[in-house]
Each structure stands twice: as structure tokens, then as C-alpha cells.
Amino acid sequence: MKLIIVDRDGAVSHEPDGRAARAGDWQSHPGSAAAIARLAHGGWRIALLADRGPLARGACDMAALNAMHARLIAEVVEHGGRIDAVLFVDPVGTPERSARVTAMLEDSLARLGIAPESAVLVADTAPDLEAARAAGCRAVLVLTGRGRQTLEANALPAGTVVRVDLAAVAAELAA
Predict the structure, then answer these.
(1) pTM score, whole prediction
(2) In what order do the strands lie in the sheet with 138-142?
(3) CB 140 within 8 A of CB 163
(4) How far is CA 119 from CA 3, 45, 71, 87, in A?
(5) Measured torsion, CA atoms of residues 24, 26, 32, 36, in degrees rounded to the nearest 10
(6) Are 129 and 105 in contact (CB under 8 A)?
């Protein structure tokens, strides 16, 4: 089984800092829902890495955050795809985020019985990419969201692959 974990904020959403707090505010990058569907059709299980930023800021409650995710899932379904799980993590900039994401990845892989080398994390920030590498997953930086700033900071973990966006990742992995 292959698993791809896609960072909601930046890789899928136009809001790299998780500012969208309502379903009506959600705006995905063009082609991201179709890319997720392509990955699903290519035999990948899909997990969404979603931080709790809107909850932490008090911008919404869990029902509103679930409605936003339902809108994203509906976009993916419209393209014939699916999202198998939503994995919640602390907001970017939170102390210990990388360690917590690593632990969440390790736990998720163990529960699903997936070898780390069969998992890919697609994100736009160095802490998430570091967490992927620490968990033994492949790390892919996308240049959407904060991705260009992350690349320019020249602090990528060894072995990180760089792609322009999620559609480019899907074209490569679901070929």
C-alpha cells in the first residue's frame, strides 16, 4: 500500500497560513483537487495534513473546520477521487511541531501497516519536510504556498524532492 500525505495549507489551499476558517473562505490551488484524484486512481491512499490554526486562533469551531474539509473533499470527489483521512497537527510555528508531526506520521504508518519508504509527504514548509524525513518517508517540497520561501531559505532536509505544485507530483507518482 502506498500513502501520500498532502499538506492542506500551501500544497492544496491558497491560504498557506491556514487563515481560511469557513467553508465559504476555502480556495484550493487550480488543479489540486484533480491532482488528488489522479493520485487516488494511481493506487495511492490519500491523507490530508491539516493544522488546527483556525481553531487555535478562535476563528472557528470544529464544525466549521469540518465543513471546510467537506468542501475540499467534495471538490476531490467531483474529479473522481477521494481523501481517506484527515490528520490534525499543531499550527505552523508551534514549538515542537516537527516532532509532533513525526510522531503522528509514525503512528499513522504503524496503524495502517505501511512501510515508511512507501509513504510520501508533500508540503511547503521545512518543519513538515523534516518530520517526513525523520519518520522515514519521502519528502516533496511544492513551490505553492510558502514553498518558494522555503526553497530560498536553503534549509531543506537531505533528499527532499522539489516540484512546482501538487499536479506535478501527481503526474510523476501516478504515471
Answers:
(1) 0.90
(2) 85-89, 44-51, 2-7, 119-123, 138-142, 161-163
(3) yes
(4) 5, 9, 25, 14
(5) -80
(6) no
φ, ψ of residue 31 in degrees (nearest 5):
85, -10
CATH superfamily of 2-173: HAD superfamily/HAD-like (3.40.50.1000)
CA distance 131 to 135: 6
Considering 9, 51, 124, 165, which one is annotated as catalytic? 9
pLDDT by position in tens, the chain (length 175): 899 999 988 899 876 555 555 556 667 888 999 999 999 999 999 999 987 777 777 777 888 888 888 888 999 999 999 999 998 887 766 667 788 889 999 999 999 899 999 999 999 999 999 999 999 999 999 999 999 999 999 989 999 999 999 999 999 999 7
Which residue of the set 7, 51, 124, 128 is catalytic? 7
- C-alpha distances in angstroms, 63 versus 32, 54, 59, 60, 68? 24, 12, 12, 8, 9
Active site residue 9: yes
Q: How far is CA 125 from the centre of its chain?
A: 10
Domain ranges, ordered by start, for the chain? 2-173
Phi, psi of 4 (to 5 degrees): -120, 130
Alpha carbon distance 56, 89 (integer Å): 11
